[in-house]
Amino acid sequence: MTSKSKRSMWYLDSGCSRHMTGDKKKFKNFKRKEQGFVTYGDNNKGKILGTGDVGGGNTLEIKDVLYVE
């Protein structure tokens, strides 16, 4: 596997309560919204910096994805 394919790899967890990414380039639209935090499975926290939609076109579109620190 090349490093390029590793950067583009996604894991979709259908049991999650919120979808999130730290890669702002993935958003097709983005709204800055600095409020709150998310808690990861290891109890670390990430600050929410915005929200938007990811994907679309030839790929699955996921709405209301959080952009986190």
Description:
This protein has one domain. The longest helix has 5 residues, at 3-7. It is 7% helix and 41% strand. The chain is mainly β. β3 (37-39) and β4 (45-54) form a beta hairpin. The mean pLDDT is 82.
Layout: helices, strands, pairs:
Layout: H1 3-7, E1 20-21, E2 27-32, E3 37-39, E4 45-54, E5 62-68
What is the gist of this entry?
With 69 residues, the chain is mainly beta.
Share of helix among residues? under 10%
Query: Which geometry do the CA atoms define?
Result: globular
End-to-end Cα distance, whole Å, is 27 Å
Mean pLDDT: 82
- How many DSSP H or I helices? 1
User: What percentage of amino acids are in beta strands?
Assistant: 35-45%
The count of strands amounts to 5
What number of domains? 1
Essential attributes:
five-stranded mixed beta sheet; 5 strands; 69 residues
